[in-house]
Amino acid sequence: MNQCFSRVDPRCLNPVVITLDSLTKVFPAPGGGDPVVALGGIDLHLDAGRIHGIVGRSGAGKSTLIRCLTGLEKPTSGRVEVGGTDIAALDGSALRAARRNIGMVFQHANLLDSRTAAQNIAHPLEIAGVPRAERERRVAELVELVGLTGREHNHPAQLSGGQIQRVGIARGLAAEPKVLLCDEPTSALDGGTTRQILGLLKDLRERLGITIVIITHEMGVVREVCDTVTLLEDGRISQTGDLLDVAGDPHGPLSGELIPLPPAPTGIDAVLVNCDYGQTGRFRTTEDLIRLAEAHGAHASIVAGIIETINGRQVGRVQLALRNHDDKPISPEGLAAFLTELDAEGVVAKEVTA
């Protein structure tokens, strides 16, 4: 085992990708009746060395997808490839060997209370029959990698929630997998600890070049660390793509959840316009929108809005109140010209009607 830990070293990048090709899983209905389609033809390609979020409501198929990815569930049809190996076609020792390419991190780490942090990290290596000296070397590397130095001899009862999750992450990395699959890794953590764990995952991706898949219902997690995102609905992909593209697409089902517009105050005597900006064009801040309104003879004020920085770029959703400089609502001609220019600049804008 010879894991490279140097930061952003191209030699550390794993060539692995995950490919789901027409993945279908159908369960027989309990007591007869129509079968239940848990996954209905999933086609998905995840690039190596990226952090990919998979989101969806309860019953969307996320758990079944995880089980198919890890070989715990056999698909009814389709392929599940990890690093070019079709997991769905394997059984027995071949499947166990392939699973070593997939590390798992769970919402609750489920550590063995009788073991120390280091012993919990070593547990999968013991099961794999790794010699003791090599286990100890690997555990020492992982303890340092996940920031547990000085805590490796503590038992779970002596660790905080964030430290317990760090042990879980280190355990998931023990066999040097090509993919780290995280199932709701921060749902049981407070806000500050969540940010620390997400920062650790980003650091691991940069240092190891590992592919990380995060199953989550928390849009804040997706905004914070994911490069790409997929929305599952009723066992099918409803939307997928680069995070910036998905967040900046106001017509897509995920945009409103990733960047939700807060409720605006009522009773405003002005023309209200919703604007989505930042994905394309030169309009990258709310100041750009306000300056353009001024150019069309209107004073613009923000009555509701949210701005997020995604992959280094501001993406915003704001509601503007437009008035003439005599404090009257903007004229229809001025509004039409304003909306036309916004459209030309890649800003999706729409007048709010009662």
Explain what the structure shows.
It is a single chain. This protein has 354 residues and is of the alpha/beta class. It has two domains: 10-101 and 177-255, 3-Layer(aba) Sandwich (Rossmann fold), CATH 3.40.50.300; 260-351, 2-Layer Sandwich (Alpha-Beta Plaits). The protein is built from eleven helices and 14 strands. Strands 6-7-8-3-9-10 form a six-stranded mixed β-sheet. A four-stranded antiparallel β-sheet has the order 2-1-4-5, with helices on one face. A four-stranded antiparallel β-sheet has the order 12-13-11-14. α6 (191-208) links the parallel β7 (179-183) and β8 (211-215). It is elongated, with a radius of gyration of 24 Å. Mean pLDDT is 87; it is low at 1-14.
SSE layout:
Layout: E1 18-27, E2 36-46, E3 51-55, H1 62-69, E4 77-82, E5 85-86, H2 92-99, E6 102-105, H3 117-127, H4 132-145, H5 161-173, E7 179-183, H6 191-208, E8 211-215, H7 219-225, E9 228-233, E10 236-242, H8 243-247, H9 255-258, E11 271-277, H10 286-295, E12 299-310, E13 313-323, H11 332-344, E14 348-351
Parallel strand pairs: 3-8, 3-9, 6-7, 7-8
Antiparallel strand pairs: 1-2, 1-4, 4-5, 9-10, 11-13, 11-14, 12-13
Helix pairs in contact: 3-4, 3-5, 4-5, 5-6
